[in-house]
Specification:
The chain is an alpha/beta fold. Helix content is about 45%, strand content about 20%. Strand 3 and strand 4 form a beta hairpin.
Length: about 280
């Protein structure tokens, strides 16, 4: 009888422990974030100016970090308690896997929304949007005196561009590539600007942020009058496909951030910072 009573008590205790555990499992992710006082964000710091790492201090920074910090502040205000942003550094594919397995709450890492991502994640945003009438635009850096006002003016010119870049895509879509004398791929933008100044290429396809910086360093250069037609639909954040409530809250935060943050300015600031560290800038 004593053995039977002991067994019954043991089973009761076990069931009680399971019940306690079950109540914790029933808490929503937002409730857990509120209790723990932080939200986790995965990012891959290898894509300046969106996200990159100081090679000396190891500090992770970039426009996505600024947006991530805004999300944490927005949640702090919304939930009525301080919420800290905890950054989880990992490679690009691991960021997405971490979101899928709920190892992190969300990820910002320069993502464009694609049909595949929309199927597998809650794509939140957009944020970091740029319209064609912003101060920063995509055009051509040339030597003073070379007039380029329309696409046809590029005919017969040697043109430089960074490989696998947005500018290369714009060149392919909006210029008659066959009419160009040559398209030269150049990784280093400072080198490319020097090639324009010395006549090795006629024009460098770049954005005006990079171009204006080169003009400051070399009075022989200027940005041509031509501007590519461009509208950035911005980036998206990734949240686990089942975390609908959390996704709605983070999307609210990102949309609010896009109104409050001067993205054109912070992107230029982060471009300059990354360049000063000798890092490759991707857009």
């Amino acid at each position: 009888m004593k053995k039977l009573l002991a067994l019954v008590l043991a089973l009761a205790m076990a069931m009680s422990m399971v019940a306690c555990g079950g109540s914790d499992e029933e808490k929503s992710t937002i409730e857990k974030i509120k209790e723990q006082g932080f939200i986790t964000m995965a990012t891959s710091p290898d894509f300046a100016p969106s996200v990159f790492k100081d090679p000396i201090s190891g500090e992770i920074m970039g426009t996505d970090i600024i947006y991530g910090e805004y999300v944490a502040k927005y949640l702090s205000d919304k939930l009525g308690t301080p919420i800290e942003l905890k950054i989880k550094e990992m490679d690009f594919s691991s960021c997405q896997a971490a979101v899928s397995t709920n190892s992190v709450n969300f990820s910002l890492s320069g993502y464009a929304e694609t049909p595949e991502r929309a199927q597998n994640y809650n794509c939140v945003g957009p944020y970091a949007t740029i319209s064609s009438d912003e101060d920063t635009y995509h055009g051509a850096l040339v030597k003073k005196g070379l007039v380029i006002e329309k696409a046809e003016d590029f005919a017969g010119l040697k043109v430089g561009v960074q490989p696998a870049s947005l500018q290369y895509n714009l060149l392919q879509d909006q210029l008659d590539v066959d009419s160009l004398a040559e398209v030269m791929f150049i990784d280093n933008l400072s080198t490319a600007a020097q090639m324009v100044a010395t006549g090795k290429i006629d024009a460098l396809i770049t954005d005006s942020g990079v171009g204006d910086l080169q003009v400051k360093n070399n009075s022989e250069l200027e940005m041509a009058g031509f501007k590519f037609e461009f509208f950035s639909e911005g980036n998206c954040g990734l949240v686990n496909i089942d975390e609908t409530e959390l996704a709605q809250l983070i999307e609210e935060a990102l949309l609010a951030a896009d109104k409050d943050i001067d993205y054109v300015q912070i992107r230029q600031d982060m471009r300059d910072k990354a360049a000063s560290m000798g890092l490759e800038v991707n857009d």
